[in-house]
Amino acid sequence: MKKMLVAAVSRVLSGVSQKPANRVLVASCNYSNDATFEIKKCDLHRLEEGPPVTTVLTRQDGLKYYKTMQTIRRMELKADQLYKQKFIRGFCHLCDGQEACYVGLEAGVNPTDHIITSYRSHGFCYTRGLSIRSILAELTGRRGGCAKGKGGSMHMYCKNFYGGNGIVGAQGPLGAGISLASKYKGSNEICLTVYGDGAANQGQIAEAYNMAALWKLPCIFICENNRYGMGTAITRAAASTDYYKRGNFMPGLRVDGMDVLCVREATKFAADYCRSGKGPIVMELQTYRYHGHSMSDPGVSYRTREEIQNVRGKSDPIMLLQDKIVNSHLASVEELKEIDVEVRKEIDDAAEFATTDPEPALEEIAHHIYSDNPPFEVRGANQWVKFKSIS
After folding, report:
1. SS3 of 34, please?
2. What is the DSSP letter of 331?
3. Nearest in space to 100 (alpha carbons), one of 70, 58, 135, 134
4. How far apart, in whole angstroms, are the C-alpha atoms of residue 186 and residue 184?
5. Cα–Cα distance for residue pair 180/186, rounded to 1 Å
6. Residue 376 has pLDDT above 90, yes or no
7. What is the spatial distance between Cα 229 and Cα 182, in angstroms, rounded to a whole number?
C-alpha cells in the first residue's frame, strides 16, 4: 500500500512543469542580504592611501550588476551577428570582455556626473540609460536610434553622456572642458574622461592633463588598458606601460578592471578625491576585449586564440561576479539563469525592432546640425539641391 501511494505521488509530481518547480525553488531559498569580499589592492602613484581592500555587495546590487553586465555582453554579441548579416555598416567597435569597467564606473558615480569616452561606447550608452532598442537601432541606422540613425556606432549620446568620439584621444580635452564647466557652475559634479591605451600616447591627452592639473579640475582620466591599441601590443607601442603614472604630477591608481567591485570602489575613491577640490586623478583599468579592435579585425593575427580563451576561463568579469554571488548565497544559479533568459528575450526583441524600423528620410539629412536656430536651407551635394535645417 505504501509503495502504491509513493508511486501515485511520483506520477502527480512528474506532471508538474519544470519551470514553476524552479520558481518555487528560487522563491523558497534563504538568501543573504549582503556579503563582504576582499578585492585586489590598487597600485598607487603619489597617494599615501588608496581604495579599500574589502567591500560589501548587497543582493540587490549583485543582481543589478549581473543583469547589466549580461545585457551588455549579449547586446555586443547580437551586434556582431547583425554586422555579419550586413544590417550594421561602417565602423563598429565591440566591448565584450570589458563589462566590469562600465558597470563599476557607473556604480561609483552619480547619474548627474558626466562621462565621455572613445568609439568603444556601447556599454556606457546602456549604463547611462539608453534602451537596448535605441542602441541597436542606432547601430543599424534606423529612425528609432538614440541619434535618429545618424550617428551609428561611434556617435551616441544621452543625458550627461557626451558620446563616443571617433578621433583617437579627442575626448581628453573635451572631458577637461566638461570638468571646467562643472567647476565654473559650482555643481559639485565630476567628469569621467575615458580613453584607451592607444590614445594614452596622444599629445592632446598630455595637454589635457596639464590644464586639468593647473586649474584643479574635477576630472578622472581613465585609461582602459585592454593590452592592445588596434593590433599592436602595449609593450611595442609605449615606452612605459604604467598608464596610471602618466600624469606624473597627478596622483594615479591602477585597478583590476575585470572585477566590478574593484572598479566600483576605485571609482568612488577617485570621485571623492575630485569632489574635495584637489584636482584631477588618473585611473588605469586593466581589462581585455574579446573581439578584435573593430569588426574588420578578426583579433587573432596579433594574439593567439589560446590567450583569449585563457582570459575567458580565468578572468571573465561576468563569471567572477557570478561566482561571488552564488558562493556567498546572494542568489542561486537557477535565479541567475532566469535573468539570462530574460536578457536574451529583451535583446532578441530589440534586434527585431532594429532590423524593421524605417531608416530616416533623406529630407531629414540636415536636421539637428545646429542648435537653437530657426529653420534655414543647407546646400546639398550641388548648389541646386537644398535641405531644410531644423534644430
Report:
1. strand
2. S
3. 70
4. 6
5. 10
6. no
7. 31
pLDDT digits (tens, 9 = 90+) for 296-332: 999 999 999 999 999 999 999 999 999 999 999 999 9
Total residue count of the chain as it appears in this document:
391
Rounded Cα–Cα distance for residues 64 and 26 (Å): 17
Model confidence pLDDT, tens digit, residues 331-352: 999 999 999 999 999 999 999 9
Instruction: Find, among 250, 120, 252, 92, the residue nearest to 198 by Cα.
Output: 120
pLDDT of residue 19: 43
Tell me the pTM.
Answer: 0.91
Q: What share of the chain is helix, strand, coil (3-state, %, to 5)?
A: 45, 15, 40
pLDDT at 44 over 90: yes
Strand partners of residue 37: 55
Largest Cα–Cα distance in the chain? 96
Phi, psi dihedrals of residue 8, rounded to the nearest 5°: -65, -40
CA distances from 263 to 34, 181, 285, 367 (A): 18, 26, 8, 39
